[in-house]
Write a structure and sequence with these properties.
InterPro entries: Peptide_deformylase, Peptide_deformylase_sf
Number of strands: 11
Low-confidence stretches: 1-10
EC number: 3.5.1.88
Largest sheet: 5 strands, antiparallel
Strand order of the largest sheet: 2-3-4-9-10
Mean pLDDT: 93
Catalytic activity: N-terminal N-formyl-L-methionyl-[peptide] + H2O = N-terminal L-methionyl-[peptide] + formate
Binding site for Fe cation: 135, 177, 181
Enzyme class: hydrolase
Strand content: 25-35%
Order of helices and strands: HHEHEEEEEEEEEHHE
Structural class: alpha+beta
């Protein structure tokens, strides 16, 4: 069993713990910097663009083109000062997201998930947190949204290896938020009509601090 675990760690981009979850909290600064320095920052697609409102295509080719996309996503996320970014937020119709996000204990997590699926949690793990949430595709707007304060996601890394990622607090919110993106949902779609209108008003009244793609 120990040798099998070691082999799995060597096969994947990130090592895994005893429960099979990626260890994404080590060497975050070095890994994030390497990604973004290889990448090119792209403008962020904002609410109203059709690519944000439909389910993205599965990743089936784990090739150099995908690796370049991941690098560009980290570069774009860094420019926008975000903690997570989905591929459709830079106009790419693929189920990929990247993250560089702290949890509520201040532990930094950095990684990549392709073809993510949220694990349905048992009732005893569904403690809701109604903190504010924002989105790079709804710039300058923030609204409270109740989400479970623990999340697990399954998927693949950028090399196609199967992975499991888990998080608590703010990082759990990030995992849920980015997975939502890839299935065509923005966080404002989970708000009431009144709250959604308020978020869009906030967006209209302020200027984003990063380049965005204007909707025609």
């Amino acid at each position: 069993m120990a040798q099998q675990d070691t082999d799995q760690q060597h096969a994947g981009v990130l090592p895994v713990d005893d429960e099979g979850f990626v260890i994404d909290s080590e060497d975050c600064e070095e890994r994030e910097q390497a990604y973004r320095e290889r990448g090119t920052s792209r403008p962020i697609t904002v609410v109203g663009n059709p690519v944000l409102h439909k389910e993205c295509k599965d990743v089936t080719e784990f090739d150099d083109e995908l690796l370049k996309l991941v690098d560009d996503m980290f570069a774009s996320q860094h420019t926008a000062e975000g903690v997570g970014l989905a591929a459709n937020q830079i106009g790419v119709d693929l189920k990929v997201f990247v993250y560089d996000c702290p949890d509520d204990n201040g532990v930094r997590h950095t990684g990549v998930v392709c073809n993510p699926k949220l694990v349905e949690l048992p009732a005893d793990l569904r403690r809701l947190d109604d903190s504010n949430e924002g989105c790079l595709s709804v710039p300058t707007a923030y609204m409270p949204l109740a989400r479970p304060d623990y999340a697990e996601v399954t998927g693949q890394d950028e090399r196609g290896n199967p992975i499991k990622v888990r998080g608590t607090g703010y990082f759990a919110r990030c995992l849920q938020h980015e997975t939502d993106h890839l299935y065509g949902y923005l966080y404002i779609d989970r708000l009431s009509k009144r709250e959604r209108k308020d978020a869009l008003r906030q967006m209209a009244e302020n200027e984003p601090r990063y380049p965005v793609v204007a909707n025609d």
